[in-house]
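Protocol check, entry for the methods section draft. Step 1: assemble the input record (protein sequence plus ligand SMILES). Step 2: submit for complex structure prediction. Step 3: store the structure tokens unaltered in the notebook. Ligand used here: 6-O-phosphono-beta-D-fructofuranose. Step 1 record:
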Amino acid sequence: MEHIKLSVDKTLSFVSREEIFKFKEESKKHLTALHEGTGKGNDYTGWVELPSQITAAELKDIQETANNLKERVEVLVVIGIGGSYLGAKAVNDALANNFDMLQADNENPLVLYAGQNISEDYLYELMEILENIEFGICVISKSGTTTEPALAFRLLKELLEEGVGKEEAKERIVAITDESKGALRTLADQEGYKTFIIPDNVGGRYSVLTPVGLLPIAVAGHDITKLVEGAKSMQEYTFATNFEENPALLYAATRNALYAKGKGIEILANYNPKLHNIAEWWKQLYGESEGKELKGIFPASVDLTSDLHSMGQYIQEGQRNIFETVISIAKTKHKVVIPEDKDNLDKLNFLAGKRVDEVNKMAELGTQLAHVDGGVPNLKIELPELNEFYIGELLYFFEIACGVSGYILNVNPFDQPGVEAYKSNMFALLEKPGFEEETKKIKERL
Ligand SMILES: O=P(O)(O)OC[C@H]1O[C@](O)(CO)[C@@H](O)[C@@H]1O
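Step 3, stored output:
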């Protein structure tokens, strides 16, 4: 069985094998701690065994709910923020046609997103479009109390009920939340919505393989069974493989070896625009897991070759505190051959007869070598092709490596206390009941 592959060769002129292998025993110990639930934040490690624990009955329930929505709606609005939408968006964009929105014969509803910002224009324009469309809502919030999705849901629920009536709206709304706590649970029970549970021991950013990710992915028409199979294969592979061949342990060890050498920024790069939102999902995963106690590698991302014409200059010659991890797709889905042109004014006839992907691959290799020459260590993650199985492998690989890497840093990779600071200021400024003291204090600062 072929797996996704990690190569760290192009980091070895910056860190030695010994510096990476220094983390060998420690990283193995951390992997065991994740599987046994004995490390920091162990009440949130339910995601570790998730791929092997999901039952066929659970997947069937998710698929049937998706099918019911597919019959009723042209658009499904997924309402959620952070881990409550990034995984679904990442997978849906990675697997969809680039121009999905324009494919009129698409038999699957278009999945749109809301509740991931508080932009009045975004919400206005979304509601304007939805007024003339058969739509449904999948509202996702683990805590059930997050302001952004709650606000969007209040508006879209009203719009839907006005458009199709309360009874039909009930059939088109699915809520994914905590089993018993939070405002969304109370509301969903009161209104009688179909609900799915986010397990207590799975945090938002590790929840893509629960109904949080799986339902919107199934609605978009992708194969959730294959996605879970991919994740399960990576679960088994990373659990059973020696450090030397274990992509998750090597990734965690190499990035920590580079961090110890002053490389404090990791840029995740791709050469396929479908992967843009995989990087957005990865940024939350690593940013919230590691960025604490004044520590952590800052996760950034670029889409190439596009950003070689914007960020390329900095990566090549700016401050030397960065390293780059490239996600590369070995085989494209389609074939486009470059034609011969009799006038050859663009001087591109030397490429005639070659595939566009060959040009892309040479751009990738050329960039990697240039960046290494410029002082940027490079890691490469290769997927044989872009499909459900390998995306499943990639998601689990990043998750398990993140847990190990966080433990190497000696932080709790499963909490995010820093996120509360903006919330409490926002509530104080908006004079939320219960925040009277904070309101008084913050107003004195303005
Ligand atoms: O699902 P919830 O509880 O609405 O939270 C959404 C997001 O907010 C955070 O709690 C803080 O940003 C994230 O960890 C989480 O993914």
